[in-house]
Amino acid sequence: MKTYFLLLVSLVLVSCITACQAESAESVGDVYMQAMVAGDAEAMLAQVSDDVTLVIDGGAIFHNELSGKEAMRDYLAGITSGGFQLELTGETAVNGNQVTYPDRFALNDFQALGVDWVAGQDVLTIENGKVMHDVWTIDPAAETALQEAILRAMVMGWTQTVNDQDMEENLAMVADDMQRLALGDPFFHEEISGKADFAAALAEQMALNMTVEYPDGPAGMQVKGNVVTTPVRFGLDPFRAAGVEWVYGTDEITFANGLISRHVFTISEASLAELGTAFAALEQGLTPDELAGFWGYDNPEMGKGYTHYLADGTYEMIRYVAGAEMLLDKGDYTIAGDTVTLTTSEAVYCAEGVVGTYTMAVTDDGLLEVTVVEDACWRRRPPVDGPIYLSPVTP
Predict the structure, then answer these.
(1) Domains of the chain
(2) DSSP 3-state of 167
């Protein structure tokens, strides 16, 4: 009977000691975690041992390990300046001298990426009434979301270097074995391997004032593993000259070791069709070389005169009066297909800025066929219905 009584007392004592230890560990942990929630670094440090260890395990994204109270003080000062906030999100779990707190934290840098909160858990080890170890581990879903946000931001930043024509910054984000494919037959097709060849191609594109945009922004980017796929549009001077402001398609950007290792652009069917139409119209239209020169007329309806189209995109209209040359109009011209637009730059008989639109073509026998579409300056407009024909002249 005595033996049974002693055994019962022992079990009660063990149970009490275990419960008291758990309660003590949880109470220390609670004070520590509530101080973290309040952003009170000194109150947190009052709960830790002098040789405390802190491990921040953010998976493949970020990792930090430090030991000692002073190192922890410096770390807390750094994250506080970065807008650190903490919230407890679930039930506390106690296992002996270890206490687990589900939580989530926020930082300005992550919020700038569109990630307001990063979920995880703190596991505290309590010894002699002090926090000896604090291990924070990111949740797998939070790691995925943060990784995707970082890759989206990197793609946006890489594109901005193109628009800023910042070659050095662009290449700093590219792997040495970079591969680039541009699939837009028959208007462009590019297969590049290696950073040197990529840099040469990029320099050519920047010289043509390449502009790249993601119309849907980061929200339109799909991330799968280390690959970002997104709608994209870009512009180049040759395409703009053909009347195509934007070429639409899809970008597929692959990352390896934090750098861009592969970039594939595929043009959309709609943009291929638009480019085809635009370039077909240019081929059928008037070229600057064909228009440049002196084109004259001499007939009863119009009198005598000529227009000089210069290669620099300017023109002068001259009319003969009593055998002497008189300036009728001067300005700038542009060609789009068979349409030539004249804009007065110096008021003579037409007001400055007045626009005239004409269709022009060089005939098989070498004449310039001109038909007015619309012109607000009646002195510049031919005084006849239908096309007029101008001949190459030497004034």
Answers:
(1) 22-138 (3.10.450.50), 145-274 (3.10.450.50), 288-392 (2.40.128.490)
(2) helix
